[in-house]
Amino acid sequence: MALSFNDENSLFNFVVKDGNGVKGLVDSGLTQVPGQYIQPPIHRINKQNTTVSLENMIIDLSELDGPNHDQVVKSIAHAAETPGFFQVVNHGVPIELLESLKVSAHEFFNQPSEKKAVYLKGVSPSPMVKYGTSFVPEKEKALEWKDYISMIYTNDADALEFWPNECKEVALEYIKTSTGMSKTRTPSPSLSDENLSDSVASVGREGNLGQSGRVVDDVQDDQLEQILYPGTSQQPAEPSSATPLDENVNSEGNAIP
């Protein structure tokens, strides 16, 4: 039986303060996206004003070391400034490591809420590790449909002592590999933060929206953030078996009215 919440405070306490997160809502048998997660129309994408891009945004980073260096730099800048995202290949991060990272993330998020809650802000054993949901739930008018675990790297000893057991070893390997890749494959001084605007190129952003949801791994400046966009409680085998919640969560894990 799905949990019921008498008011906004009871839902906020369950999701945020008690550490159940959005996954806790989904696991409770939720059949309808709560109003607190529905963005007002003014903040939604106006599909009538969007265009479909047919450009191939796959960039081979290995070509930065060859005669096509300048063209790759231009392609990165164009992809960052225009569609705002792109896929990189031959980046030097083993696929096996990326798969292990996703598995470890699911192992963390699939734990009981009380085990994840030990990393909530204010009670976490280290300020370098934080588990939470949404972005700034205390101030947001509409909550984000996501849970996350954020780990800041200072040194190996702290990482192995304070990071969650479920993901610390593979996360440590990933952050070293990916930051090493970014340092050895820095395209060009001309590709500055200004050129890239607010766009970010990430490695390993992949996962399926289903029983466990979509996992995104993002590493920037020695900080790894693993994000879960919870899907439905069960992966529908047939369209007719979809739960009511399926109709309110799109393929990217975002709540829609």
Structural description of this entry:
By secondary structure, the protein is an alpha+beta fold. It is 30% helix and 12% strand. It contains 8 helices and 6 strands; from the N terminus they run ααβαβααββαααββ. Strand 1 (58-60), helix 3 (69-81) and strand 2 (87-89) form a beta-alpha-beta unit. 30% of the residues are buried. One of its GO terms (molecular function) is metal ion binding. Pfam families: DIOX_N. This is 2-oxoglutarate (2OG) and Fe(II)-dependent oxygenase superfamily protein. Residues 179-198, 203-257 are annotated as: Disordered.
Write the layout of secondary structure elements.
Layout (H helix, E strand, L loop, with lengths): L7 H10 L3 H7 L30 E3 L8 H13 L5 E3 L5 H15 L3 H4 L12 E5 L13 E6 L3 H7 L5 H17 L8 H4 L17 E7 L2 E7 L28
Parallel strand pairs: 1-2
Antiparallel strand pairs: 3-4, 4-6, 5-6
Helix pairs in contact: 4-7
Sheet/helix structural class:
alpha+beta
General shape: globular
Major beta sheet summary:
4 strands, antiparallel
Please name the CATH topology: Jelly Rolls
Q: How many domains make up the 3D coordinates?
A: 1
What is the count of DSSP helices, taking H or I runs of 4+ residues? Answer: 8
Instruction: Give start-end ranges of low-pLDDT stretches.
Output: 190-211, 233-257
The second-level CATH architecture is Sandwich
Q: Order of strands in the sheet with the most strands?
A: 3-4-6-5
Name of the level-1 CATH class: Mainly Beta
Average pLDDT, all residues: 79
Helix-strand pattern: HHEHEHHEEHHHEE
Question: How far apart are the termini?
Answer: 22 Å
SS elements, strand count: 6
Q: C-alpha Rg, in Å? A: 20 Å
Residues in helices, as a percent range: 25-40%
What proportion of the residues form beta strands (DSSP E)? Answer: 5-15%
Q: What's the CATH superfamily, by name?
A: B-lactam Antibiotic, Isopenicillin N Synthase, Chain
